[in-house]
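Batch job 17 of 40 flagged for manual review because the log was empty.
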Amino acid sequence: MAKSKEELELEQKEAKEKLEAILSSTAPKNLREGVSSGVSNIVKGAVGGAGVLVLLPIMGGAVGAKQAGIVGGAFGLAIGAVGGVIGGAALIVSGAVSGVVQIGRGVAAVPQQIIAPRKGKYWNEYDGKWVYSDLSQIAEEIKDVPEDNRDLLGDIEKDLDDGKKKQEGLVTEVADMFYYETLDVAPDADKGTIKRNYYKLARKYHPDKNPGDEEAADKFKVIGEAYQVLSDDDKRIIYNKEGRDGLQGQNDDEAPKLDPVILFTFLFGSDKFNDITGQLASATSSRVGDSPEVSLKVARQIQQRRVGRLALKLVDRIEGYVNVKKSGGSTDEFVAKWLAEGQDLSTASFGYQMVTTCGKVYNLVAVQHLGSLESGLGMPAMAKWAEAQHARIEAKKSKNKNEMDKLKAGMDMMKMAMKYQEQINAAETDEEKEKLQMEMQKAAIEVTLRLLWATNVVDITATLHETCQIVFYDKTADEETKQARAEAVQALGETWMNMEPPEGASGEEKDAAKMYEEAAFAAMLETIKRKDEASHGKS
């Protein structure tokens, strides 16, 4: 018997309350309370209005760090990188972008939200309407399109390569050219050019692409060092005047430092995942130096190509499972194949975090979709899924977290810095003060990496969510195939999200997996929740 409108409204309301309760206990304060900031059009085109609303508060972590007065030094690069991931300061979000969701308009599930999916349509927040997907048409449209989008971005990249982007107020004669030559930029190059060249060169010499090559590893390390100096305004001024010798006091060997591999991965992802996530928006934006010349229309074109390719690849990945599922056979062979693929992906630098996160997104989006087919509502299924995942995360947490650990987990940079400052002021010896300052720097790096990771999780979540909608609502497939595809994606997600860390993983990698899991969970759940809310009230 079909549920009444009142029953559906109550079910939706209860589910939303459950999700809010879970998010209030897991999402960092910065993830839920927004601050205005720059968001590049490429990133906006990738994550959509709902995703932007999640990204803006994450930026609050970087703002909090600046307000706390702990930007600079060993981790100044990381704080700046949060802004770099999300985009250039010239692109200010004034509260909304085209098609942005308005949160807080009520919990009632309107008829169109129930009816449209049953007619084979999904809500496209970018176009602002319910649409069909057609994989045959998508395949035709992108077959001759360059995967690197050079037809859309080539002119901007050429200007950057030709050295046309200068930063005003900088001298052209400097004491030391080593870092500029390392990144192949002029002394008056702007930050966008520096970031683009860092991305290109670090990608070329990345350890994942050059296993066992010590020369490449050393080159990668120096490239990261050069970027850390030239992307930091204060360090760059000192370097220009005094060269590397002038930075000696700031590059204390005992001071905590960002691992260049972690930084690159959390900034740009991994090429090994291109068939799963495509090139992350942060990487695409870096290719053009976060240029404001990329219009939102072009950015959306880039994202449409990205999700179109990923949808076609996802259908290929699950096709065998779907066919066997429809015929009533065993799917074990395909699950084993997915597991092997996931294990291979997890061998990339911090690939385990990437593959388990992708698995969770696949699993949740499929659960949400299958739940909406049953009742017309996806949020109750989301709430049930989130409760189970939250319980698992809580069970793994240390029961004896101290206050500082809780502040780090909450990504509250300002409170953390204030707490450390109190302890530093109360310290009786210089040795105690120095130790606390080192601890504060290490904690700030950890929190900032969580912020970086959360920004990429929003992009991955928004992209895989749209990819799955295209696959689930493909009008060229019959209803049985659509159902089997959703079940296959759910199984794929479950396989990857429940994987164990790769054999031989270091203690540091295992600790990192736990450290960033909660940040990823909160960012992912918040993004999909808002995507679901975006379809409310749409007709």
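Reviewer: the log was empty due to a logging misconfiguration, but the result itself is present. Confidence is low (pLDDT under 50) at residues 25-38, 56-110, 406-411. Unflagging and moving on to job 18.
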